[in-house]
Amino acid sequence: YTILRYGSLYGPRADMRNAIHRFVHEALTTGSITYYGTPTALREYVHVDDASSATLHVLGPEFANQNIIISGNQPMRVADLFRMIGEMLGKELEIKYQNDPNSGHYQVTPYAFMPRMGRKLVPPLTVDLGQGILRVMEEEHRQIHPELQSQGGYLVSTDD
After folding, report:
1. pTM for the model
2. Where are the alpha helices (DSSP H) in the chain?
3. Which of 22, 24, 29, 102 is the most buried (most CB within 10 A)?
4. What is the pLDDT of residue 149?
């Protein structure tokens, strides 16, 4: 056996249950983001491409009978993530922190004491968090505005 746990996954084809997808969608459609934790919460976002490569790597015999954590290599506070999204969109976002203690959000680490030791695998080559978020923004923008298509680097309306 090999037991896998993942950091905060994000990437293409996600739905509203995915945090990064929901944050980008809210920022694009409302100019605000609602977060049920605190601004200082720390996450290690991992792109699905990196997670899938790492998952295939873990199939090797050297990982047999182990607990493996697959995470990103760029720990980030959610407040900084929201600032990054706002900068990418070129606008000031309204951030609504709910600080809900029952939300299930951890503050700094998802780890809890367990008698069995796990190993952490961070893929050596990764999708940069900023580039990954830009890809999510592009995909979400296409879903929100299907009437626009990219032609020569510009968005043009197909409604003629």
Report:
1. 0.79
2. 19-30, 48-57, 78-89, 129-144
3. 24
4. 74
